[in-house]
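Good morning,

Attaching, inline, the backbone tokens for the sequence recovery test we're adding to the shared suite. The designed sequence is right after.
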């Protein structure tokens, strides 16, 4: 009897030893993430499995216990009752299989006891169906900024110390992001966005935790601002220079565009040096959606465009754009060759004078005795994009070829920059053929 009693005591101690050491993590198919309990007094730790629920009150938790025991065994599932600080029956089955699963689980701690004869295995885990609710809106929209409003609520992970039923919690570390497409705009709940876009834009509020659960919601910012933009072509050339200004502004009101054409930069500088008063640098204001303007005089010019968008009777948003570089209109210029060969070979047969940005020009040619033998003039010269070349003498006098020799020319004209231009020199006329 004593021997049997001793064996019974050993078996009893071994049973509890097995129960104690067999606590292990039970698996949780479909869990988004997990953590470990931080019991203050209960020995050991249990797994906390986190599932992402679409909304509050929708249980999606699932647990699965596995055993290496063979033969018929009993799987007993129980759920912790924090009001009684004990485990209540949840589900039981007998099976030859090595696994048992339960699903659709509400938040709480579940205990699985696997029994086969005198062998007992005990497993525990906490299940939480976490949810996030997010809402987004736009407020305080004006010409300079607007506010993205984010509101959110979410479930917490609260559990109990199984030794004394003390309430504990596991942080979710909730984070927020505002995104424009793939770009992160802000990481705060209700950011103020400056420099609003000029087109309607969808912003997405993303709320997420450290376990991988998240909720996204979008809101559309309806733009009230405009962005001024334009380009000019060509940016340089000789006067008179026709420049086409193409309006590329966004969200501007048709008929509300204002172009400001500035005076010549050098002229502005010179006037500023002479005057102590503020000077007017604007040459002309033009109201048009697109613009073509002819620069009659040479100089260096800047242009700006103001775009407007009417919001209501008390608010109109505006934006201003400038050219990235100056429009350069060439100074007037005259150039004449010092030799030509009017021999009919098709090469250098005429006396050709080059010039640009000239309003009018007069050319006189004299022989070696100072007698004027040829005269050519032209006025109101327009529309030349590059250096203009004009044949002013074909090497004939009164229809007959002039004698070979040295002739004198005098060129005079008025440039579109307002400057009188003169040049003179000798030109050699050769008749022979190579």
């Amino acid at each position: 009897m004593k021997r049997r009693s001793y064996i019974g005591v050993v078996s009893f101690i071994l049973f509890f030893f097995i129960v104690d050491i067999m606590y292990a993590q039970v698996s949780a198919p479909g869990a988004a993430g997990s953590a470990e309990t931080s019991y203050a007094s209960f020995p050991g730790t249990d797994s906390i499995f986190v599932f992402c629920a679409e909304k509050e009150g929708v249980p999606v938790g699932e647990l699965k216990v596995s055993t290496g025991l063979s033969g018929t065994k009993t799987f007993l599932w129980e759920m912790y009752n924090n009001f009684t600080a004990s485990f209540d029956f949840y589900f039981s089955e007998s099976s030859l299989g090595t696994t048992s699963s339960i699903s659709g689980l509400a938040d709480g701690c579940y205990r699985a006891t696997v029994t086969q004869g005198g062998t007992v295995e005990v497993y525990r885990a906490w299940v939480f169906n976490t949810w996030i609710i997010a809402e987004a809106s736009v407020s305080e929209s004006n010409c300079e900024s607007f506010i993205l409003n984010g509101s959110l609520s979410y479930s917490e992970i609260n559990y109990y110390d199984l030794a004394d039923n003390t309430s504990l919690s596991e942080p979710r570390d909730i984070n927020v992001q505002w995104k424009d497409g793939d770009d992160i705009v802000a990481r705060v709940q209700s950011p103020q966005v400056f420099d609003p876009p000029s087109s309607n834009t969808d912003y997405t509020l993303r709320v997420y935790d450290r376990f991988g659960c998240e909720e996204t919601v979008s809101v559309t910012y309806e733009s009230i601002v405009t962005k001024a933009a334009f380009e000019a072509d060509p940016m340089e050339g000789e006067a008179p220079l026709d420049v086409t200004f193409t309006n590329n502004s966004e969200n501007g009101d048709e008929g509300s565009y204002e172009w400001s054409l500035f005076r010549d930069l050098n002229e502005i500088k010179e006037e500023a040096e002479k005057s102590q008063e503020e000077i007017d640098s604007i040459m002309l204001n033009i109201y048009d959606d697109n613009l073509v303007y002819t620069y009659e005089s040479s100089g260096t010019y800047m242009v700006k465009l103001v775009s407007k968008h009417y919001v209501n009777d008390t608010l109109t948003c505006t934006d201003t754009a400038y050219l990235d570089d100056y429009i350069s209109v060439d100074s007037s210029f005259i150039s004449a060759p010092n030799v030509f060969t009017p021999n009919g070979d098709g090469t250098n047969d005429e006396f050709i004078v080059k010039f640009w940005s000239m309003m009018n020009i007069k050319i006189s040619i004299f022989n070696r005795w100072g007698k004027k033998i040829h005269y050519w003039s032209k006025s109101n010269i327009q529309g030349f994009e590059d250096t203009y070349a004009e044949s002013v003498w074909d090497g004939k006098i009164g229809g007959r070829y002039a004698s070979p020799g040295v002739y004198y020319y005098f060129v005079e004209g008025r440039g579109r920059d307002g400057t009188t231009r003169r040049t003179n020199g000798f030109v050699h006329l050769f008749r022979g053929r190579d």
